[in-house]
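During the no-cost extension, the postdoctoral fellow (Dr. R.K.) reprocessed legacy sequence entries with the updated structure-token encoder. One reprocessed record is reproduced below for audit purposes.
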Amino acid sequence: MNTRKVLLLAIFMVSAACFVQAQTFKYIGAGKCKMCHNTEKSGQQFKIWSESKHAGAFLTLSGEKAKDYAKKNHIADASKEPKCLKCHSTAAMAGSLAETVTVEEGVSCESCHGPGSAYKSISIMKDLELSKKNGLIIPDQKTCEKCHNKENPFYKPFDYKAGVAKIAHPRPKS
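Re-encoded structure tokens follow.
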């Protein structure tokens, strides 16, 4: 094979690899997660989330505390303010990558676990490493501190271990 063909093949291979790496994962919404994560076998993970403060995070932006804060800080509506929504709504955080997630879901599964469009299928979810390659995030303290930080006007010192215990939703051992 001549040098030119080798060079063209190399360029093609690098371009193809870059294209695969550039895949954009989309946010699909908690309703899609519910399909598999709301059974006894899954540990009722969806139910646990739906009863959590995270699920109700968007609604807090319509509460009196948020309204008072908004008024004092010349914000017309906290439930439409990007500075508030970035931590109170997965859909707002997702922006143009939001496929079927809604603002009203609050802080849903994908805020912590990453957009699920590519890892949602059972064949991928059965393999942790494959799931990670397809966008699954295993949240850590840094994940939580994207919102639980001093930028939050209602900040309280954040205890990661206590916080994780409050939202724990482990899958039962098989």
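Residues 14-22 have pLDDT under 50 and may be disordered. Residues 25-166 form a domain with the Flavocytochrome C3; Chain A, domain 2 fold (CATH 1.10.1130.10). The remaining legacy entries will be reprocessed before the final report is submitted.
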